[in-house]
Amino acid sequence: MKIFITAQALQKHEMETRFAAFMYDLIEHMLKLYMMPEHNSRNHWKQEIYAFVNKVDKLKSSKKYPSKNQIFDWTYRKVDDILNDQSRMTLLVMNLCQSYGCEMPENLDEMLSTFDALCYDYFLWLSDKLSKDGIAFRSDVYSKLDELF
After folding, report:
1. Which end of the chain is more exposed for a tag (fewer CB within 10 A), N or C?
2. Is 30 exposed, middle or buried (CB count within 10 Å of its CB: 0-12, 13-18, 19+)?
3. Over the stretch 58-116, which tens digit does the pLDDT of each residue have?
């Protein structure tokens, strides 16, 4: 009798789809951290970011974790179009300011450029971590978010 265990192995397409489902919400929470560094919901937002993407399964085809480049493509590259869409990001910032009572940044272009660079750094770090270990621990994610935001 042969038993095959495939529950944890996924196709690349399935994994990419799983990541894509959370990217917009993840970016919104990262933006909250960036715009409101002293807000008392900061730990909640970090928890949400951690929950969105903290592990990756091995690929069905290779039985290995996806490469750093694959994970980076499935995360940052999926939100790159959002981060570089000036009108969409402006609306997101306006919505956050209205919802949380903060003021619109004076130099929005500069702020969004800096935010994009911070997101790039975070997803590069996360991609490296997940490609090696398959998991990013909560304490590591929180530390990285505190370092960046």
Report:
1. N
2. buried
3. 888 888 999 999 999 989 988 888 888 999 999 999 999 999 999 999 999 999 999 99
pTM of this structure: 0.87
| Burial class of residue 49 in the structure, from the number of CB atoms within 10 Å of its CB (0-12 exposed, 13-18 middle, 19+ buried) | buried
Pair 64, 130: CB distance under 8 Å:
no
Which of 37-45's residues contact partners 24+ apart within 8 Å by CB, and which partners? 37/149, 39/100
The dihedral formed by the CA atoms of 114, 119, 121 and 127, expressed in degrees to the nearest 10: -170
Left, alpha or beta for 63 (phi > 0: left; psi -120 to 50: alpha)?
left
Pull the structure tokens for residue 130.
Answer: 């997940």
What single-letter DSSP state applies at residue 75? T
User: In this predicted structure, what is the pLDDT of residue 12?
Assistant: 64
